[in-house]
Each structure stands twice: as C-alpha cells, then as structure tokens.
Amino acid sequence: MRRLLILLLFAASFGFGFGGARAAGVADDGVHLGVASCAGNNCHGAVEPLKASRVQQNEYLIWAQKDKHSRAYAVLKDERSQRIARNLGLLNSKGEPDAENAAICLDCHADNVAPDRRGRQFQLSDGVGCEACHGGSVGWLGIHISGGTHQQNVQAGLYQTDKPLERAERCMTCHVGDDKRLVTHQIMGAGHPPLGFELDTYTAIQPAHYTVDADYVQRKGRPNDVQTWAVGQSMDLRKRMDAILDPKNVPKGLDPELALFDCQACHHAMDQLQWRPRASTGLGPGKLRLYDATAVMLRTIATRVAPEVATELSTHMLALHKGVGEGWPAVQREAAAVKQLAEALIPKLAAHEFTKEDAKALAEAVLGLGVNGEDLDYSGAQQQTMALQSIVAAMQQLGFADETQIKALNEALTKVGETVANDQTYRPDVYVQALRQVQAKLPP
Amino acid sequence: MLGLIATPAFRYAAGVVGLVLALGLRPAVAQAPLSPGEPRAAARSEMQAGVHIGVATCSGGNCHGATERPHGSAVTGNEYIIWSTRDKHRNAYRVLLEERSIRMARALGLPDAANAKLCLDCHADNAPPDRRGRQFQLSDGVGCEACHGGASGWLGTHISGATHQQNINAGLYPTENPRMRAEKCLSCHFGDATKFVDHRLMGAGHPRLGFELDTFTAIQPAHFAVDQSYVQRKGRITDMQVWAAGQAIALIKRMDALLDPKHSRRGPFPEFVLFDCQSCHHAYDPLHAPHPTATGLGPGTVKLNDANAVMLRVIAARVAPAAAKALNMHMLALHRATTEDWAAIQREAAAVRQAAEALEPALSRHNFTREDMLAMAEAVISIGSPSADSQFSHAEQVTMSLQAIAAAMKSAGYLSEAQAQAATTALNSLNASFANEGTLRPDAFVKGLREMQLALGVQAGRVGQ
Q: What is the ipTM of this complex?
C-alpha cells in the first residue's frame, strides 16, 4: 500500500497511470469470453471468499474498483482523448473525434481481439479486462473451474503472469510498446501522456489482485521483487532496442522517432542551466539523448550478477549514444549489440536466486547512481526511485530488515517519490538529499 | 548577448522602446529621397583589411565622448557615452568573466571563455592581432569598430569633415543602410558561416537569441538621432524599411545556415538551433499540445523556426503579392520536407532563400504609406491571436514588429500624442506577457494586442477569437 501511495504521485502528475496492459492477442489465444464470465460471486467477484477457495476471490472487485485497467476504455471518451483523436485525424463519418473506434487506441485501451474471437459476454467497453492479460479462456475455463492445478490451467492456455519473464512480455507490449503498438511521438505530440514503467512497481500499484500466501507459493513458487525488477529491466531494454531496430522508426528527413529518446532531454525549461556531463553517455551539451534509464539499471544489476556482461553493456551503450551523432546505421549496429546483451541477461536474471545480500548490494548501487551524480536525469531518478521501492519490498520479504527498519525506509522513499513527482519541478540536488536519507536508513 | 525579449532585461529594454516613442526622440522630418549608399566592392575589402585602432580613438571629448554637442558637429557627440553607459555591447566581453560563462566554458571543454575565439568572435571586436592598433583593447567588448569597421583607413577623412559617402568610400561600414545593418547585426545575433551559436552552445547554457533589426536598433539604445542633418547626409530611412529588410535578411541567413553542411547536419540529426526552441522546450501539458496547423505539420514534429518567414510574408503580401505567394508555397514545402528527405530540404531552403533575396531590394526601398502601415499592423496582430499560430517565436516577432510599425507611424506623424502614449502602454503589456525565455502568457499577450489595435486605430480584427 505504501508503494501505491508513492507511485500515485507519479501517476497523478503525469496521468500515465491509466495506460492499458497488453490487449489484442500476440498470437491467437482462443476466444475471449469476457469479464462477465469471470466476475461471478462464486468465482472472482466474491465479497467474502468461500472456505475451500485458494484465492481471495475478490480479484474482479479489486480490478473493477481500484485498477485503472478497468477504465482504459472509458478514458477514450474523455475530453483529452477527444482532443488527441482530433489531432491525429481519428474522426467518425460525422467528422467527430472517435478514439473509441480506432484500433491505434483500442489495441492498448481494450482487449481488442478480432471480432471472431469475442464471446457472447465479451464487451470492448470492459477495457483491459481479465483475458487481456490472462489469455482467452475458452480453452481453459472448464479446467480452471473444475479445480485443475495451476500447471494444468497453464497447459490449457492460461497465460503465466506469475513468471517474471512472461509478465514482463505481456505488460510491456503496451507499457513500453512493440512493433505493432508504440506510443509514437506523433501520438505524444497529439496529447498522449508519456509512459513510465517498472515491472515490479507497476505490479504492486495496479494494485495486485493476488496475495502471496503459503498456498500461492505452493502453487506458483515464491516471487522475489528484486528478480521481477531485474527481469523487467532486461526486457524493457530489449524492447527499446527492438524499437530502434524497427525499420518503421528510421529517421525520415530531419525527423527521427522522438519517442525513442529521453523526454526531458528536450522537454525542459531553458533557464535551468541543467546540463551536466554523464560518463555513461559521453555526450556533450545540446545533444539529443536516447532514453537509457533502464540500460543504466540493467548495468547496475549485471555488475552484481554477471560482471562481464556489465562491462560490455557499458561499452555498447556508450557507442550507441555516440552513434546518434554519426548516423542511423551506427545507432542500429550498437542497438543490435545492446539487444543481444539484454537478451542474454534475461535467462540469467530469471534463474538467479536473489539473496538478501544481493538486495543490499543493489540498493547501495542504485543509491550510488544518484548520490554520486552518475545519472541524475529525470528519467534516471524515476527508475531509481521505482527500483528502490522494489528492492525494499524484497528486503522485507527476504527478512533482511525488520518491520521498524522497513517502515523507516519506506518513509524515506516516500520523500524521494515526492522529489520526482513532476518532471518540470524536479531538482537533482533536492532528489540527492532525499536519497541520502534512504542511504542513512539502510540496515548495516 | 543583447537583451532577450523574454528576460527582465528585455522588459527593461522594452521600457526604453516605450520611452523612445513617448519622448518623440524620432521626430517626424521632411521627406527626403532615400540614398542607400551601397558601398563599393573596393571599399568593402579595404574595410576588411583596416586596423582596429580602438574605442579610445573615438571617445575624445571633442569627438564622440562629448557631454554637449560639439560646435558645428553634424551629430550629438555623445555616442560613446551612450554606448559606454547604456549599451550592452559594452559589457559583451565582461560577461565572459561571469559565473554563467565560466560554467558554459567548462561544459564546452574550453579553458577560459574570455580567451576562446568561439566566444570572443561575438563578445568582443575580435580582429586578428595584426589588425589591432595601439589603443585597441579586447576588453572593450563590442566596440565602435566592431560595427563601423576598422578605422585606420577612414579616421583621417572622417575627422577632416568629409561627407558620409567619402567616409564610406574610405572604409566606414554603412550601418544606416538597412540591408548592410542587418548583415552586420545578424552576423552575431543570428550567426553566419564563421560565427554561430549552435545547439551545443545553447545546451551548455547560452541564452536563446531573439532579434528584430528595428527593435534592437532602438533598444541598444540607438546612439544617433534621425534629424535634418542625418536625413541630409544619409537619407531618410524609415523603421518600416529597417524592419522589412531585417526580416528578409534574417530569413536569408536562416536558409544559409540550413544549407551550410557545417552546421546543418550532424549524423542523422539537424542543427536544432534552426528549429523553434519551444517546439521541444515545453512542459508536456495536455492543454499545450502544440499544433502548428499553418505549417502543415502533424503533432509531435519538430518545427523549423519560421517567425521571420511569417513576418516577411505579411510585408510581401502588401508590397509584392506574387512574391508573397511564392514564399508561402516554398515555406510550406520546406516544413513538409523536414519530414521527408534532405534533398527536398535543400531544394526548398534554396527556393525560400531566393524568394527572400528577390524581395529585399523592393522592401528596403518601398515608400511605406499610412495604409501600408495600418494593413501590416492588422496582419501582424492577427498572427498574434491564439486562433492562428500562437507560438512563442511568433509572438516575439509580432511584438517587435508592432514596435517597428508604431515607431514608423509616430515618426511619420500618423499618431497623435495620446495614440503614441497608448502604443507605448500596449508594447509594455506585450513585453510583460513573456514570463521568461520560454513561456508566453497568452491572455496577457492578447490583452496587449487589443491595446495596440486601439492605439494604432487598426480595424477591429479577429484578436483573441
């Protein structure tokens, strides 16, 4: 809950909290029966759980009441969306803005499967509903309600959102983008809010509609927040490199796909004298900078888990930044190298058992990025803040810190969250001060 | 280096603009034929070669450092005093020693801004060492000869009571000629082939450049008065001509920069300084969502700074309608080309340059009538209205253009005392609507436009609709 409060600060200032999750099937995953087929009060819409149930059964209620995914479609009808639609020329036959019928919007703001894969109770207006993430249930609903094991459900087609890698894949199709769905700079320029994402944090602030209890662990294994974070970072970086390599995003004229770049590299006031050298980019002042906050995170994680990859990652990220000033072929060459490194890290991180010593070391390393001035860009500060929240959650779970210590850490993190709540009022020195307070509260 | 429109310094300077108008320092004088005084090629090369003998050689009490008009002098004689006490050109070198410049030098990897050619080329009269006289001091900043040319060749003629034309023939730079003034000022206030504030310098902390020739002439403040003697010696050059020529030359220089392989393209990306600063440097406020429809560009694209082109179009629409159409067409094509390919950009930039070049002589010589002035004021005001393309860069040029038009109307005797006063008030309102280097307060700006409309007696148009 604490994390929810901290992150709502971001969400409130950016309005990026409503972003949809994955929607239209990456592959054909069967017919989507609709939210109504899950929401029964003996199933996932119960006010109190049945005795024999292994889950809380209030999953639908949490989603419907607290989760912004349930409003992903509704938001397409609000004033801002109408403005975006008008700017993009998405109009109906009467010439009115029409976001709620545009595939470009629906692909992430609803469970936009093909019409022949929509069941009788399916409603587009349910937004990003159950099957948008868990997969079309026509194949597995029967087994699922007959008390099949998790593994049996998965075999019948239930998507494995419990696995960090699969979860990252699914969430990031929309929250980062893929070859079919990318919130391009055109869409941003029309008024779409920027996307900010970190897998573990966003799992927590949905809010999660599951509880990790003994039963969950027995059925699905024990999740580790640091691992979810780490796998999420590697997937994030891979997807960003995919976007650079996508032929659709090759610069046209003087017009690169600006969504690949760091928002605040350009979107800042001109009176702040904000430029400072960053060893990890090697860029001089006045340069357009590729978004690299997740690359910096992944390097930090790799330094602990796979040091040889970390060094290579640094080298190729530097070359990638340099490549922007040389030409798109250089950018693509280095993006391919970075992608390969990120891809190689994914299984390593998914298999690595993150210990409390790892959590401590990673917390220190992430704090160091800010405190030592290595990456004080707004995007960096934002990722560092979310990373620290994930690491502290893991510390609690791994028994590294007691309840009082966790409480103190979370209080200090709330203050950090406040300093990164708004990109226009973000001040690196204030942020560093807040980080130092977290540093002081880390148990020895 | 000079006051920027958005800074408090500019607002102060704009107060001076108001003062100029209010006090009638530009009195209406009898019409005289314009003799632009084109310098001969030989004189120009001599000018290049002249030794810069230093501010001290001009500032004598009997010359340009006089507290009272020297007996029999054609000028007031206080030019040096105005420059040294009120003109920021005087501080151009000193500013290189300040904290901000130290910080910029560090970011650029320069050991010392005050010794770097990159900085000195515009922050001082950086003539080569073998062309610096005994009394020359770099620390004088942008001194007399930075604009008027090295005086070794013409000082003798000049102090012997030669005519203005003789001085020019001997190497004096003809700053009174609108085109020549524009060339000289813009070589730093926009840049040229050898001097250019590129985006790297901006990123390191250099302030944004904002410029309009007539306004910046006035707010220096000008160290000349257009009186009978001036008109007799140099011809009657109006604010309208200075404004118009300034816009044409600024656009030509922008196109030159775009076509210059040195700073137009690095890697796949353009030299950002040629684009509209606020096209990128804005907060992503959902209500902002800049949508420059008049350019034909869609959302999320970076727009070339076209404020000079827009102003030039307004002027040309009245003076040379056919040329205005061609300019408009090629500007649209240029905007479109920025999302296409480099060859198209070069083609259209060359066409825009040609259109501006063709327009300039007509504009510099045009005898602007009262009707011209009113029509242009109306057109400029409607560009500033938010229903059109209300953007910082446009608003900035709108404000300065209205200054030029109001000054021209005042000089020509088309404004009553009360109207001139009201125009001054309107200019102050317009200037105050610039919150800082990047933020315009639209409501305050529209209010200023309405005030200006009333002050000049412009037909009620579509302001603020």
A: 0.85
Beta bridge partners of residue B275, listed in sequence order = B304
Count Cβ atoms below 10 Å from residue B293 Cβ, excluding itself.
11
Each residue's pLDDT tens digit, B411-428? 999 999 999 999 999 999
Q: Distance between CA atoms of A2 and A394, rounded to whole angstroms? A: 14
Distance from CA of A331 to the nearest CA of B (A): 10
Q: Residues near B4 by Cβ (< 8 Å), separated by ≥ 6? A: B10, B207, B208, B209, B210, B437
* B260 φ, ψ (degrees, to nearest 5): -80, 115
- Please, are residues B256 and B51 in contact by the beta-carbon 8 Å criterion? no
Confidence (pLDDT) at A9: 46
Domain boundaries, chain B: 1-38+177-465, 41-173
Q: Please name the residues between 290 and 329 in chain A that touch chain B, using a CB distance below 8 Å.
A: 323-328
Note which residues in 82-121 of chain A have CB less than 8 A from chain B. Answer: 83-84, 87-88
Lowest mean pLDDT among A3-12, A385-394, B152-161, B415-424: A3-12
For chain A, the structural domain boundaries read 161-174+212-441
Chain A closest CA to B206's CA: distance in Å?
9
**Each residue of A59-112: pLDDT tens digit?**
999 999 999 999 999 999 999 999 999 999 999 999 999 999 999 999 999 999
In angstroms, the CA A124 to CA A126 distance is 5
Residue of B nearest to A273 (CA): B205
Are B284 and A263 inside 8 Å of each other by CB?
yes
Q: What contacts A168, CB < 8 A, 6 or more positions away?
A: A199, A231, A232, A235, A236
Q: What's the average model confidence in pLDDT over B247-270?
A: 83
